Amino acid sequence: MMLTMEHILRRAYPVLPVLVIDDVERAVFLAQALCAGGINVIEVTLRTPQALEALKVIRQEVPDLIVGAGTVIHAEQFAQVIDAGAQFAVSPGFTERLAVAAQETKLPYLPAVMTPSEVLAALEHGYRSLKLFPANGGASVRMLNSFKGPFSGISFCPTGGVTRDNLLSYLSLPNVACCGGTWIAPASLVQAQAWDQITRLAREACAMAGHLESLT
């Protein structure tokens, strides 16, 4: 089946873990811990020299996960992440060059926006699934709430500032498909190889979202 960004975000609900991996040997253990906690989709950010190799290894060893590449900031990186096996790409912003590169490679792409003008620019290129970055708590919740009217049919993945404490305030909004987060796999737990604790954090987030759904 050909993946679309809309399908990927539905599978990512409630949380798309945003991972910074600097040790390839721990990458599979981390991915397996998240998968055991109910996570279906992860984002491996291109913030370390080991990121592409980690992405490749996870794709090979944890086939149940949908694995994307994050922090894609150069058009040339699309070819690199495809070679590594990425199933989608995420950027911290939006430019025409990045949009063209994504369309040329046909890789599902989640560009980031922060203002109504940026949303309009993304819409002009056909993107209806967008990352809101940075998401800074209550102000971003209010912004997303105000986006419901003029931008109906647009799904957002707020990222950068989402925590366990404010997760449900985002997920309760009808235009939020899922949230990006780092708190599920913080660097301290990865370095300690505390895989059971990471699994517990993932299960906790999924349980919180399940409770929210039962109330709606």
Number of helices: 10
How much of the residues is beta strand, in percent?
5-15%
CATH topology: TIM Barrel
Number of DSSP strand runs: 9
CATH architecture: Alpha-Beta Barrel
Radius of gyration: 16 Å
**Unreliable stretches, pLDDT < 50, 5 or more residues?**
none
Mind summarizing the main beta sheet?
Answer: 4 strands, parallel
What top-tier CATH class fits best?
Alpha Beta
What does the overall shape look like? globular
Structure description:
The chain is α/β, with parallel strands linked by helices. The protein has a single domain (5-215), classed as Alpha-Beta Barrel (TIM Barrel), CATH 3.20.20. 46% of the residues lie in helices and 15% in strands. It is built from ten helices and nine strands. It has helices at 5-12, 24-36, 51-61, 77-84, 96-105, 116-124, 138-147, 167-171, 187-191, 195-215; strands at 15-19, 41-45, 66-70, 89-90, 109-110, 112-113, 129-132, 155-158, 179-181. The strands form three sheets. It has a four-stranded parallel beta sheet with strand order 3-2-1-9, with helices on both faces. A three-stranded parallel beta sheet has the order 6-7-8. Helix 5 links the parallel strand 4 and strand 5 (109-110). Helix 3 (51-61) runs parallel beside helix 4 (77-84). It is globular. The two termini are 31 Å apart.
